[in-house]
Amino acid sequence: MIVSAVKGLNAALRWISGGLLAGILVIILLQIAMRSTQGRGLAWGNELATYFLVWSVCLGLAVAFFERTHLGVELLVSKLGRLRRPVEILAFLITILFLAVLVYYGWSMVESGMGRTSPGLGVPMGYVYLALPVAGVVGILNIIAVMFTGKQPESRVDEIVESELEIAETGTSQGREELGLGPSEWEQDIDSRASDDEGDERRS
Q1: Residue 124 pairs with which residues in a beta bridge?
Q2: How far apart are CA 108 and CA 99, in angstroms?
Q3: pTM of the full structure
Q4: How many other C-beta atoms are found inside a 10 Å radius of the C-beta of residue 106?
């Protein structure tokens, strides 16, 4: 139940984050157009774009906990064997503790920020600071969902390296074919070794 609810929440937050990024692009283009035509931009344009960026980044960081796309070092964890899952649970609990602290102090910033307004837009700064506790709560929910599902990171270093090698080899072969060139020296060497091995097997 919690996993499906978190997935729905993440889907909505992705749309919101994408909309905020689109809003930043629109504001920047509008600023450029006005500076080119009128010699000055909107007084509140840069401020609003900054606030949009803060909210977009905070929401994206929170959603990334469920996708497990945050940077991490798995070299040691991958060699733990049966201890890997307990170590991951411990790391999740420590992260939840950190996010709980973020929620606590973030909400304190929201309360204190409601008495101050932004210079350009004139909105209470508490609405800007609200991104911190919201990101903390969403991050905690996503980590709990990952703990229930046992979801693993989407990509691993070895898979990335193998895919890059395959792309490089495929691209090299295709490039030589387009230029009308024969196989490279190392390809010829591999083919000759394979032929020698087949000949040895037949003689034996």
Answers
A1: 117
A2: 14
A3: 0.65
A4: 20
pLDDT by 10s per residue, the chain, length 204: 677 888 888 889 999 999 999 999 999 999 888 888 887 777 788 889 999 999 999 998 888 888 776 656 566 666 777 777 787 888 889 989 999 999 999 999 999 989 888 888 888 999 999 999 999 999 999 988 888 776 665 544 444 445 555 655 665 556 555 555 555 554 555 556 656 655 555 655
Percentages (nearest 5) of helix, strand, coil residues in the chain: 80, 0, 20
Q: At what angle do helices 131-149 and 84-113 cross, to 10 degrees?
A: 160
Extract the tokens encoding 75: 């070299």
Place of tokens 């070794």: 193
Cβ contact 26:75 at 8 Å: no
Structure tokens at 106: 């973030």
Q: Which of 11, 31, 26, 23 is nearest to 138 (CA)?
A: 11
Tokens of 116: 């101050």
Torsions phi, psi for 166 (to 5 deg) = -65, -40
The residue assigned the tokens 């270093």 is 157
The strand pairing partners of 172, in sequence order, are none
The answer to whether 5 touches 16, Cβ cutoff 8 Å, is no
